[in-house]
Every structure is written in C-alpha cells, then in structure tokens.
Amino acid sequence: RLADMDHNEAMEDPELKFLAVPPPPKTGSYTVFGRMWQVCDQLPTLAEQNITQLYPDGPIDRVAELKRLNHSVLFEFLELVDVLVKDPSQFSTCTERIRDVFVNIHHLINEYREHQAKETLKLMIQRQIDSKRQATERTLAKCKELEQTIEQLKREAADTKDEISTAVASEENQTDSTVQGNAEQHIQTQITQDGLAKILEAVQGLT
C-alpha cells in the first residue's frame, strides 16, 4: 500500500505518517566525518572558503596560471627560508601565503573535475565498444572457421561414402567370383571322387 502512494498522500494518512520515506533534501548542507558538504554538489568559490584568489576572474589560460602558481610556490618557499634565517618568528606569514598558493592550485585543478569525469566516461565507453567489437570480430572469425570445417567434413563424408560404395561393390564382385569358383571346384572334386569310386569298383571286379 505504501509503495503505491507518494509522500504527501502518506503524510495525510495517520497510519502511514511515520512510515513514509521523507523526500531527499535539495538545499542545505550535511556533515560527514567532521567535514561540511553541500547537498547541491558544486565547487565552492575561494571567497566562500575565505581564501585570497591569486588569479584573475573570467576566462583564463589555466595551464599558464598553474605554471605561474608553481613558480609562486618556489618563490614563497625561498622567502620562507630567508625569513627562518633572519627572523624565525615571522614564519607564519610565509606559511599562510604558501597555503593560499596551494589552495589556489588545488581549486584550479578541481575546476577540471567535471571535464575529467566526462572524458573518463567517454574513455570507458570507448574501451567497452572496442572490447565488444573485438569480441564480435573473434566470434565472426570463429564462425567462418567452423563453416569451413563443416564444409570440409561434408566433402570428406561424400568422399568416404563413395569409397565405401566402391569397396562394397568390389567386395560383392569378389564374393560372387569366389562362390562361383568354389562351386566349380566342388563339382570337379565330386567328379574326381565319382571317377575314383568307379575305378575302385572296376579294380575290385577284376580281382
């Protein structure tokens, strides 16, 4: 019953009021492992993070800006080394500037996440397409190989059938010749035996 009802209908029913699943939040924030996250997942600006933005607003060459910020990191690190030598108590100012540079670099890189996700998805889909295409090509090649094997087996079966027919016919001929020869030999043997019997009778009559 609850599955067929929307949230508003379930809230109006006193029996189902506390069983209805609340709708997902669309605004606000939530905390996970001590960190605050926005319900609407979007990259917060540097101003919202209270970080000084070290690159201009608007369309920029992000590669060039990242290179410039990398140089800034090296410069700020050398400044930190110089401060630690001359006045170590002022190191916190240098570390704050270094932190700001790194956060700006990280923010610029994060702006590529959406593009990176799209390119990664395109790459995954392309790999799946290539894999399926290769599997299809292997299947078609195997089918063609099986068709050739079947045709070869058909030819061999036909040749074997002809050989069997020839062998059977030859064997029948040999059998007929053998039977005829045996019959003639039997007749000759019978005639010889009859002749010997008559000769034996004649010899006995003489004695």
What does this structure look like?
By secondary structure, the chain is mainly alpha-helical. The protein has 4 helices and 2 strands. A two-stranded antiparallel sheet has the order 1-2. A hairpin with a 2-residue loop joins strand 1 and strand 2. Helix 2 packs antiparallel against helix 3. The termini are far apart. The mean pLDDT is 76.
Describe the protein's topology.
Elements: H1 7-12, E1 29-32, E2 35-38, H2 62-86, H3 91-110, H4 113-206
Antiparallel strand pairs: 1-2
Helix pairs in contact: 2-3
Keywords, separated by commas or semicolons:
single chain; 207 residues; mainly alpha
Task: Offer a concise description of the structure.
This protein has 4 helices and 2 strands. With 207 residues, the protein is mostly helical.
- Report the count of strand segments: 2
Give the percentage of residues in beta strands. Answer: under 5%
Q: How confident overall, as mean pLDDT? A: 76
Indicate the radius of gyration in whole angstroms.
Answer: 51 Å
Order of helices and strands: HEEHHH
Uncertain residue ranges: none
- Helical element count? 4
**Cα-to-Cα separation, first versus last residue:** 130 Å
Largest sheet: 2 strands, antiparallel
**How do the strands of the widest beta sheet line up side by side?**
1-2
User: What kind of assembly state do the chains in view correspond to?
Assistant: single chain
What's the overall geometry? Answer: elongated
Q: Structural class of the helix and strand makeup?
A: mainly alpha
